[in-house]
Write a structure and sequence with these properties.
168 residues, mainly alpha, disordered N terminus
Length: 168
């Protein structure tokens, strides 16, 4: 579900424009997704903390969203470090065909992210702020939708395009 506008960065790259060969695709993933996540999560967490503080007690307030985003960011950083330090160098070094275990581990972690994304959608009422929400709350929901959409596309590229050829 792409957002009508982006808040923190450019929109997700459509799959058909992503490079197909592993070295170019890895470079694309690192630049477009890993670095984007590292920039955008702290801002979304900041927005969530502000909304939770200002609107505490309001029934629609996304209580726990900042903590959930922080957990997601920590888990994602650990995941991306494994890819950057172990898996991607294996693939780039020509050891992709022997990378079945690390690839399957990354794919299992992607399933964990999918569960976290489900909670994100629930906490943000499917990224829909109340009709009278302030600009910060609207920006927060837009940021969360962007994070969601980027993570979905990021995982799709890795699972279906980058990893698939090595899982024979």
């Amino acid at each position: 579900m792409p957002s009508d506008h982006t808040v923190l960065s450019r929109p997700s790259t459509p799959a058909e424009t992503a490079p197909a060969d592993p070295p170019a695709l890895i470079a694309h993933i690192l630049d477009r997704y890993h670095e984007t996540h590292r920039r955008e999560f702290p801002e979304a967490i900041r927005l969530a903390r502000k909304v939770e503080a200002v609107h505490a007690g309001v029934s629609e307030c996304p209580d726990g969203l900042a903590d959930h985003l922080a957990l997601m960011a920590d888990d994602l950083e650990a995941h991306q470090q494994k890819e950057e330090r172990v898996l991607f160098p294996m693939i780039l070094g020509g050891y992709g065909p022997t990378a079945g275990f690390p690839i399957r581990r990354m794919m299992a972690e992607h399933e964990d992210v999918e569960a976290q994304l489900k909670v994100l959608r629930e906490l943000t009422c499917d990224f829909t702020p109340p009709a009278d929400a302030c600009r910060t709350w609207r920006a927060l929901n837009d940021a969360c939708r962007k994070i969601h959409d980027d993570l979905v596309e990021h995982m799709r590229l890795e699972n279906n395009v980058l990893f698939a050829p090595f899982l024979g």
